[in-house]
DNA sequence: GCCGTTTTCGGCCCGACTGTTTTCAGTCG
């Protein structure tokens, strides 16, 4: 799967072209990159089928460039641009306030190639001499440079959500504020988040922005205007607050929930129908047609309401226009968790504690699936597993509202065999198979290993199928198409693991799996009672993958579920 | 460089804010 690589090369070309802008070639490259980035199939397969030019935004020229990248692994056009401008573009672009134009000027006039050069020239006060720059720009560069060096980039949704909720809570406690919502990629529930967008309705913009800027979470105020303010928070993340009138709030929510590509498409649709769309409403000439609610805005544009998790411009607009959006699985549809650990292996809470917490969440069932054998996770041997089954029976007897299922997360050896004997597996209600060792195996062997696990009759669920960990570890090099067709053929359930770092399967893979007709589960892989709340992240991922209730097996009643996995 | 339910040529999303200007360019989202 080279989609990511092709997209990043095209994006890099766009970065260089932007130095000479305004140039619509830039937009063309970015659009093509976005198309490829959000493709759920392998771009190499599309090339093989000769269908590259059927993709939106890909014409004759970019088609040829994609072929070159796939054939040779690089793009001569980009290599020449790099020679012409031998810059550390990523680093320079990460300095707030520096864009392609200024970077080009800095290189041509002062020979600045990287952050060290930039710092040197700023300290010598050479930058303020350049056209369009001044003392303030120079000082800002120096200030932002330090931050660019430290910055870790996007943060995990699971880590940012609690912070954004706290901010929302604080703002909504103000009497002056009529409405507050978090928008942006947090509202879309994207797996990583770049900043926090807060939208408010108030008659007192200055007071509200002052309150926001003075929160103890704020390290520094970056921008302050009449309708928006940007601050840098203690954790290095930026947060924006924007103030609207009540009648504008729906269109503001649409616009600031994004994505960027979705906004561009929506505005084009407005134009094609003789209207104009911005964050203040949908307009025909001067007359406002909609703006108060999101539903009104989508309706004025001639389409159904699009749930935030789908707003990535990957086909949802067309579906909304045709009334064919999926009826997404809902956060309240989940009837149980099928992958949790207790203190019988590497979990921190007891079986009873986990059961009570699940019961609090109104679950109908909970599968106890501790590790087997692997030493690192205090995995259970056969005797302990038998003992644990007895304990589960005992707790089940004690609790009325919830049913505990006997399960195990069984380790797959390097060849895809389970590390538990058949007679024991037979006793379990549910068997999860997972890779926990020999992760750097040769890709071909890893593929065989996992396919072999799917063929095992005892395996009900494959846990965290691709093994990725966000910001930590790449996925195994799986042939994902083979995985999905084998899962469907063997009726093995694929897990959407809800751990903030995993979210595995990821959104795009969920979408693909749904198209393949695979069965999915959303589970938390909890190691503590607190972790059960990760379910929200997993369901969000399922929704981002267009999954419906029928695709997710733990929305089923206990009876229906047991029939499926028996 | 791409694209077409007014177009095969002439468009290409839109607004806020800042710093440098003195009417605007660059950046950001």
Automatic annotation (TrEMBL):
Its cofactor is Mg(2+). SMART domains: HhH1, POLIIIAc, POLXc. Residues 50-69, 90-109, 125-144 form the Helix-hairpin-helix DNA-binding motif class domain. InterPro entries: DNA-dir_DNA_pol_X, DNA_pol_lamdba_lyase_dom_sf, DNA_Pol_thumb_sf, DNA_pol_X_beta-like, HHH_MUS81, Hlx-hairpin-Hlx_DNA-bd_motif, NT_sf, PHP_dom. One of its GO terms (cellular component) is cytosol. One of its GO terms (molecular function) is DNA-directed DNA polymerase activity. Its EC number is 2.7.7.108, 2.7.7.7, 4.2.99.18. Keywords: DNA damage, DNA repair, DNA replication, DNA synthesis, DNA-directed DNA polymerase, Methylation, Nucleotidyltransferase, Sodium, Transferase, Ubl conjugation. This is DNA polymerase beta. It comes from Methanobacterium subterraneum.
């Amino acid at each position: 799967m080279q989609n990511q690589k092709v997209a990043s090369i095209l994006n890099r070309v766009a970065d260089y072209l932007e130095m000479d802008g305004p140039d619509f070639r830039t937009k063309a490259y970015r659009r093509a990159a976005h198309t490829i980035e959000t493709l759920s199939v392998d771009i190499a397969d599309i090339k093989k089928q000769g269908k590259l030019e059927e993709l939106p935004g890909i014409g004759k020229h970019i088609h040829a460039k994609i072929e070159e990248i796939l054939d040779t692994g690089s793009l001569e056009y980009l290599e020449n641009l790099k020679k012409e401008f031998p810059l550390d573009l990523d680093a320079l672009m990460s300095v707030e306030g520096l864009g392609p134009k200024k970077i080009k000027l800095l290189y041509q006039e002062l020979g600045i190639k990287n952050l060290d050069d930039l710092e040197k020239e700023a300290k010598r006060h050479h930058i303020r001499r350049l056209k369009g720059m001044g003392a303030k720009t120079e000082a800002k560069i120096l200030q932002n440079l330090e931050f660019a060096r430290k910055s870790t980039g996007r943060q995990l949704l699971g880590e940012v959500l609690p912070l954004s909720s706290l901010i929302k809570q604080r703002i909504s406690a103000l009497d002056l504020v009529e409405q507050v919502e978090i928008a942006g990629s947090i509202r879309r529930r994207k797996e990583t988040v770049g900043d926090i967008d807060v939208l408010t309705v108030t008659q007192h913009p200055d007071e509200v922005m002052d309150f926001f800027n003075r929160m103890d979470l704020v390290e520094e105020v970056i921008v302050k205007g009449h309708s928006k303010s940007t601050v840098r928070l203690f954790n290095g993340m930026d947060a924006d607050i924007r103030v609207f009138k009540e009648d504008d709030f729906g269109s503001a929510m649409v616009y600031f929930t994004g994505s960027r590509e979705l906004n561009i498409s929506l505005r084009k649709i407005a134009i094609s129908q003789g209207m104009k769309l911005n964050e203040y409403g949908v307009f025909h000439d001067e007359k406002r047609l909609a703006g108060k609610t999101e539903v009104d805005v989508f309706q004025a544009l001639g389409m159904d309401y699009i749930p935030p998790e789908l707003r990535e411009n990957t086909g949802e607009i067309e579906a909304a226009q045709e009334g064919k959006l999926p009826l997404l699985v809902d956060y309240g549809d989940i009837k149980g968790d099928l992958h949790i650990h207790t203190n019988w292996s590497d979990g921190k809470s007891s079986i009873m504690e986990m059961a009570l917490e699940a019961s609090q969440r109104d679950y109908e069932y909970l599968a106890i699936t501790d590790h087997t054998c692997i030493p690192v996770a205090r995995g259970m041997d056969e005797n302990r597993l038998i003992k644990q089954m007895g304990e589960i029976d005992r707790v089940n007897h004690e609790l009325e509202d919830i049913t505990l299922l006997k399960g195990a997360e069984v380790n797959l050896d390097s060849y895809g065999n389970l590390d538990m004997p058949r007679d024991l597996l037979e006793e379990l209600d549910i068997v999860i198979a997972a890779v926990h060792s020999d992760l750097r195996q040769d890709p071909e062997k890893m593929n065989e290993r996992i396919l072999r696990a799917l063929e095992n009759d005892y395996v009900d669920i494959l846990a965290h199928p691709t093994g990725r960990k966000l910001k930590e570890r790449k996925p195994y090099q799986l042939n994902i198409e083979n995985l999905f067709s084998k899962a469907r053929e063997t009726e093995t359930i694929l897990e959407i693991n809800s751990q903030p770092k995993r979210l595995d399967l990821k959104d795009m893979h969920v979408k693909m799996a749904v198209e393949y007709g695979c069965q999915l589960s959303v589970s938390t892989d909890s190691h503590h009672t607190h972790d059960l709340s990760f379910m929200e992240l997993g369901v969000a991922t399922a929704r981002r993958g267009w999954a419906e209730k029928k695709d997710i097996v733990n929305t089923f009643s206990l009876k229906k579920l047991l029939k499926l996995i028996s």
